[in-house]
Amino acid sequence: MIKPSDQRDLDKARTFQFLALLVALIPLVGTVAAGFLWWQGWRPGWAEAGLFALFYLITLTGIEVGFHRHLSHQAFSCKSWLTTTLTAFGSMAFQGPVIWWAATHRRHHQFVDTAGDPHSPYWTASGTALGFFAGFFHSHIGWLFQMKQTHPEGWAKWGRDMYCQPVLLTFQINYLMWPILGLLLPGALGGLLGCSWRDALMGFLWGGCVRLLAVNHIYWSINSLCHLLGPRQFSKKTGHSCNIPLLALFSLGQSWHRNHHQQPTSAYVGHHWWQVDPGAWMIVAWKKLGWVEQIRPLRFTLANQESPDAAHPD
User: Fold this and answer.
1) Burial letters for 280-310: b for 16+ Cβ neighbours within 10 Å, e otherwise?
2) What is the pTM of this model?
3) How far, in Å, are 51, 83, 150 from residue 118 at the CA level?
4) SS3 string of 39-57?
5) What is the DSSP letter of 296?
6) Among candidates 148, 138, 142, 146, which has minimal Cα distance to 227?
7) Cβ distance 103 to 178 under 8 Å?
C-alpha cells in the first residue's frame, strides 16, 4: 500500500516531468512548424524578426538579470515595481517557478560540479566520449526529468527568504499563466500588426516558439557547455566552469561563467572592459534612472585568486 506522502511525491514527480516535456517539446514543435511554413512560402518578415528580438530580450532579461542576478544572488536592490516586472518577464521564459529556479541555482553554487549539484555534467565518472555526451545531455536538459535533481529533500530551504515575499510567492503559485502569456502575446501583437490570422500564427511561432527554443537552449548551454569546456583543474568555488566569449552577447554576459563563479554575488560578470556584459549595462543604466538603489561591485583582491581549497560561496 502506498503511503499518502509517497503518493504526493509520485504525483509531484509526474507533474514536473510533464512540465519538462512541455518545455522541451512545445518550442521544438513550433520551430519545426515555422520552418515547414517557411519552406511552403510563409517567409518571416520584419514583424516576425522584431517580435522574436523583443521577446528574446524581455524573457532573457527576466531570467538573467531578474531571476539570476537580482533574486538568486541579490547582486542589486531595486524598486518593487522593477522586481515584479523582472519576475514576470523571467516567468515567461518557461524555465520554472521563480522560487524553485532561485533555490535550484543556489544549490548549484553550493555544490558546483560535486554531489548535490542538480545539473553538473560530471554526474558520471566515465571519461569516454559516450560519458561526455551523457553528461552534456544531463546538464543541458536531462536533469529536468529527474525529481531527485529538481526536488531533492529539503530543496525549499534554499529559497526560504523568497517565500516571505508575497509577490514572489504569488508568481510561484500562479506560474503556468506566465509561459502561456509569453506564447500568446507575440501572436496577439502579430495579429494586430498584420490584421490577419496568418500574421497572428506567424507571431506566435516566431515570437513565441522559436524565441523560446533559442532563449532556453542558449541559457541551458551555461549549465552544459560552460562546465564541460572549462579547465581540468577543479576548484570548490568555480568547479569546472569556463568563459565562452561567443555566447556572451546572446546570454547577456552569463557565459563569462567562470568569472561569475569567482564572484557570484557581484552584479558584474564581465571582469575586464572587453568582456561584453549587457546584463550589467542594464543594471547600471537603471541605477542612473533611479530604478536601482544599490549595486554589489566587483572586489578584486588576492582572496579572489582561485585555489583548490577555496570555500563555497555563501
Assistant:
1) bebbeebbeeeebeebbebeeeeeeebeeeb
2) 0.90
3) 33, 26, 7
4) HCCCCCCHHHHHHHHHHHH
5) -
6) 138
7) no
Say if CB 242 and CB 234 are below 8 A apart: no
Q: Show the cell assigned to 39.
A: 519552406
pLDDT, tens only, 54-107: 999 999 999 999 999 999 999 999 999 999 999 999 999 999 999 999 999 999
Q: How far apart are CA 111 and CA 103, in angstroms?
A: 12
Average pLDDT of span 15-34: 91
Name residues whose C-beta falls within 8 Å of residue 190's C-beta, 6 or more positions apart in sequence: 47, 48, 51, 199, 200, 201, 202, 203, 204, 206, 207
| Burial zone of 259 (CB within 10 Å; 0-12 exposed, 13-18 middle, 19+ buried) | buried
The 10s digit of each residue's pLDDT in 189-233 is 999 999 999 999 999 999 999 999 999 999 999 999 999 987 667
Return d(Cα 92, Cα 55) in angstroms, integer. Answer: 9
- Band the pLDDT of 8: cuts 50, 70, 90: low
Cell numbers 531578474 correspond to 66
Grid cell of 222 as nine digits: 551555461
